[in-house]
Design a protein that fits this description.
Blueprint (H helix, E strand, L loop, with lengths): L9 H10 L7 E3 H8 L3 H13 L3 E3 L4 E4 L1 H10 L3 H18 L2 E8 L2 E8 L14 E3 L4 H7 L4 H10 L9 H14 L2 E4 L6 E9 L5 E10 L5 H20 L14
Antiparallel strand pairs: 1-3, 2-3, 4-5, 4-9, 5-6, 7-8, 8-9
InterPro entries: GAF-like_dom_sf, HTH_MetabolicPath_Reg, Tscrpt_reg_IclR_C, Tscrpt_reg_IclR_N, WH-like_DNA-bd_sf, WH_DNA-bd_sf
Keywords: DNA-binding, Transcription, Transcription regulation
GO molecular function, one term: DNA binding
Length: 259
């Protein structure tokens, strides 16, 4: 129910307050938080105090506000991706042991790949994928692997609304890339985000053969071994899928498509 002059509800304003923290930032001054949330300072102050009373935010000295541990606890305890991450972790660790490079796990969230887990080691190549971070579908091998295995109607909607901010990728080229990815059974992008890296990803399917995640690696261009990497990833993806299908192994995972 809307109860403000702008017509937004209390829930809308609470979400704006929590979402105002940019990626990698856990502390903001109250005035900056209000500005980023688009709220009057008095309204932001009242909401922050109420949220702090529930442990979702914490008030510090000098008017600073930080995300609360209670928020982290609730998200990690009840996240719908918890079962997926638990099922995937042993397989991701095995791949990392062999490659000594970045391994990531992503789900499709709208028109973006949302990364829910990532493993990396000192000395591995740069990887822009961060846990709880997002990347556009067309610049991420994980995003392409996810979108290329969605129903045709979903792909059509995606391509229809697609606009590359950099103007380098046209919708028709993207449609061809998705078709090639689906035909090959894996996605690959070389030097798109970082010029010296190559991303490869494969779909992870559930018991109903729906693509619910993508398992990927980021490796140096000079160490690219497609013939070895793809079968290893596909084997791991099948293993993750089997774990998701076994109710004794992990709690049930429900993809966004099943909700």
């Amino acid at each position: 129910m809307a109860n403000s002059g702008t017509g937004d509800s209390v829930v809308d304003r609470v979400v704006r307050v929590i979402a105002a923290f940019p990626e990698g930032v856990t502390v903001l001054q109250l005035s900056e938080l209000a500005d980023r949330a688009g709220l009057p300072l008095s309204t932001a102050h009242r909401l922050v105090r109420q949220l702090a009373g529930h442990g979702l935010l914490e008030l510090g000295s000098g008017g600073s506000v930080r995300l609360g541990l209670r928020l982290w606890e609730l998200v990690n305890r009840n996240s719908p991706t918890l079962a997926l991450r638990q099922a995937a972790m042993p397989f991701m660790e095995d791949i990392q042991q062999v490659l000594n490079q970045n391994v990531n796990l992503a789900v499709l969230e709208g028109w973006e790949a949302l990364f829910v887990e990532r493993l990396s080691r000192r000395g591995s190549v740069a990887n822009r994928a961060q846990i709880a971070g997002r990347m556009p579908v067309h610049v991420s091998s994980a995003g392409l692997a996810l979108m290329a295995n969605q129903p045709p109607a979903v792909q059509a909607d995606y391509v229809q609304q697609f606009r590359d901010p950099d103007g380098k990728v046209q919708p028709e080229a993207l449609r061809t890339l998705l078709q090639e990815t689906a035909g090959h059974g894996f996605a690959q992008l070389a030097g798109v985000v970082d010029p010296d890296t190559w991303g490869i990803a494969v779909p992870v399917r559930d018991a109903r053969n729906r693509t619910v995640a993508a398992l990927g690696v980021v490796v140096p261009l000079q160490e690219m071994r497609l013939q070895a990497l793809v079968p290893a990833l596909q084997t791991a993806a099948r293993g993750i899928g089997r774990q998701l299908q076994d109710p004794r192994a992990t709690p049930a995972f429900h993809s966004a498509e099943s909700l």
